């Protein structure tokens, strides 16, 4: 797997990990870094491509590999101040921290999904994969991990509800890829303790480039 190395070896501490996910280029998440200078001056930023994505090796990726990579990054470059995740990166961040228990002070999660099995079904639906083939795909994946995981266990809303660190949710009401009902599920499981910033009309991708969203996320990271 290819990881960016510039500045990482010299960094004294890691402040933010940006997660590279399906439809978002590192450059688009990079805008979050620009305003975060007064309180977070001196922190390093680590970015990576998920397995099988863009500059990383391989042709496949799944939640298990992704969550393990996040945990490895947290161990290698931590302790982390914050993680920013979008979409698949947001969901895998929740799962990784719940399963691997690495320390991080706070997390900002944009356009995330609340159920791991749902995202597989959603992916299959977009590609018009028959239901029987989707079920077989899930079974093969579980068998690949020797029965240690079940897709029905990936209840990310419940995992987030059990978290004790500050978390900011950001979701657009017009998100067609991951509907805002997932944000509502997160809020329900956390009994309203997790703040939700909602936007209107930004959709799934523009939300990470919106100046108001960036400012709110940066304020949260600096708190």
UniProtKB/TrEMBL annotation:
Domain spans labelled AB hydrolase-1: 42-216
Pfam families: Abhydrolase_6
Keyword list, A-Z: Membrane, Transmembrane, Transmembrane helix
Source species, domain of life: Bacteria
Regions that span the bilayer: 21-48
Name of the molecule in the record: AB hydrolase-1 domain-containing protein
